[in-house]
Amino acid sequence: MRKVLVFLMIFAVASCATVSYSPQRSAYLERVEPGSVVHSLSLDPALEERILALDPERISGDDVRTTLAAGPAPRIVSLHGGIYPVHLAMESFAEFLIGMGYPEAKLRHPGDGRASLSPYEDSERIAGLIAWYYEQEGMRPLVIGHSQGGIQAVKVLYELAGAFTDRIPVWNPLTDQAEDRFTIIDPLTGLERPVVGLQLGYVSVVGAGGAALLLPNQWRMAGRLRTIPDTVEDFTGYTIGLDLVAWDLPGFAAVSAYHGEKGVRIRNVSLPAYYSHVVVPVTAYLAKDARMREWIDEYRPGGLNGSLELPEGPSDNLLWAADVWYDVKKHWCLEAQRLIRAKRAALGPNEHWEAKRTD
Fold it and tell me: Are 151 and 218 within 8 A, CB to CB?
């Protein structure tokens, strides 16, 4: 098992070295006016109908390739752990998502192309960045954190809840600076709203906790980490059966469990004890195997996949990868449907019908 984990880490480093990505800055509006985002959404009406007809709970690999990938996708904000070079593990995770069909442009920072953010970046700044993405793209970002990055993900939810300040500036990733404003134009309603109070659709963390809570940048999360504020709808917390880094130990599942404020849907998922805290996100190799991709695409939470036998070969981190991919597909679908419905509501029935007739 140790040899397999070492191999996977080497693979992650190698894949990182071959990544070449040029951010597409032209895709963003200089200034967002009320209604500009939904009116700029140009999709074939037949594609819109196919997206709206999807069941978010049952997205197949074919649905991803032929329908979701042809439409809009939400930004994924990944937060890596705090010890160098653990960020390479999240680079591997980005390669996994790309291999499963997720658009690379929505995985990488539009300013510098990196695949994940550091947990040492200010959480207020990350919250302002998330608000900028939502305003520009019309879809709420999905947030996935590993190790100390998981702590930071929950910290960002507290930032959005106004736990530390009542005003958060919008952060522009293209200029890498805060803008002189604390509000955004909600892309779906066209109304001005503060960054504080923004609710995300999906956040997940793995391996969060432990000694990292003793670091000065995470002190304020002590006593808060396991209680999730209502600035997210769906939250999944992954713990490893035996994780000496995150201090998750056998027999203490109740202590490690996440709880949500009213209205937050929480899933607590226990991963096998043989998983390694450091390399859980090292998953790029899974998407390179057609049999593994098929198994992962058919996975449903609540137990091992019953319709397909697990393929032979290395399968480290498979359960985490499959479970996260299930949620990513689900919320990709939900956010796309939300944006299309907002566009149709903004156009009105007559204008929407005229657009369909013209196409």
Answer: yes
CATH architecture of 2-16+31-358: 3-Layer(aba) Sandwich (3.40)
- Alpha-carbon Rg for the chain in angstroms: 20
Q: Under a CB-based contact definition with an 8 Å cutoff, are residues 98 and 287 in contact?
A: yes
List beta partners, residue 177.
172
Residue 216 burial (CB < 10 Å; 0-12/13-18/19+)?
exposed
How is the chain split into domains, by residue range?
A: 2-16+31-358
> What are the tens digits of pLDDT across the range 219-270?
899 889 999 999 999 999 999 987 777 678 776 666 789 999 889 999 999 9
What the block records as the tokens of 309 is 């036998």
Residue 251's contacts (CB-CB under 8 Å, 6 or more residues apart) are none
Whether residue 149 contacts residue 112, with contact meaning beta carbons closer than 8 Å, is answered with no
Q: At what angle do helices 318-358 and 87-100 cross, to 10 degrees?
A: 50
pTM (2 d.p.): 0.90
The answer to whether 91 and 146 have CB atoms below 8 angstroms apart is no
Phi-psi region of 190 (alpha: psi -120 to 50; beta: other; left: phi over 0): left
Contact 51, 333 (CB under 8 A): yes
DSSP assignment letter at 149: H
CA 18 to chain centre: 23
Query: Which residues, given as ranges, of the chain have pLDDT below 70?
Result: 1-26, 246, 251-254, 303-308, 349-359
| Helical ranges in 138-242 per DSSP H | 148-160
Cα separation, 258 vs 52, whole angstroms: 32
How many residues in the chain? 359
Tell me the β-bridge partners of 193.
184
